[in-house]
Amino acid sequence: MKGSTRLAQVFVELADTLVEEFDIVELLQVLTERCVELLEVDAAGLMLADQRGRVQLMASSVEEARSLELFELQVDEGPCLECFASGQAITNVSLVEARERWPIFTPEAVGAGFSATHALPMRLRSQVIGALNLFTHADVRLDDDDLAVGQALADVATIGLLHERSLREQTLLSEQLQGALQSRVLIEQAKGMVAALTGVTVAEAFVWLRSHARRNGVTLTSVASGVVDGSFDASVLAKR
């Protein structure tokens, strides 16, 4: 884990995103990236439940994690789904030894180059809204301090999503999460379009889209929407 100064900076960074009408997709993307940085894991993915209670992929630190998490949803088996269903953390699981636990997911994860996994619930009291998945290439353990930091990061995001939402406002929360999922679809479409137009990888296209949004003080979703509906000239990204 990184030093306490960097840790404090990250918590400030996450808190700074929790302003009125904050961009959920950006918050969750930052969360996965900071988990990789602070915990020195190799990849992270994050899933949220939609308004019907179905778990959907919302963010990933690298394309390998994204593909693996989508596979997990496809086969309905794996650490993130188990964590979401139970509301309990799943930690320090060696994938070499997990074939009986997740017989379909495990070979895919190992084939993607991962050797260990951890899943942390996005939970506030009894309400579980998703799960954060961490992967390492080497079969290494995270100590209690690392796991506590990872859970704290997940908790910050969870509190941000549920902040000042009472039981009477659950419909609003569901709409908010559904809107975020729709934004994710737009972003995936935009990544593919930019990649096809410029010849870069999908991962590089995402970096270009996100950088443009940050430079211009607009949301990633709005940039992606412009690419998809043709109101934004994606070739501008290549020039930059």
Indicate the low-confidence ranges by residue numbers: none
User: Helical percent range?
Assistant: 55-70%
Distance between the termini: 34 Å
The helix-strand sequence is HHEEHHEHEEHHHHH
Number of strands: 5
Separate helix tally: 10
Class derived from helix and strand content: alpha+beta
Q: Major sheet, described briefly?
A: 5 strands, antiparallel
Tell me the overall shape: globular
Widest sheet: strand ordering: 2-1-5-4-3
Rg over CA atoms, rounded to whole Å, is 18 Å
How much of the sequence lies in strands comes to 15-25%
Mean pLDDT across all residues, rounded?
A: 87
Question: How do you describe this structure in short?
Answer:
With about 240 residues, the protein is of the alpha+beta class. It has 10 helices and 5 strands; from the N terminus they run ααββααβαββααααα.
Which key features would you list for this structure?
single chain, 240 residues, alpha+beta, five-stranded antiparallel β-sheet, 15% strand
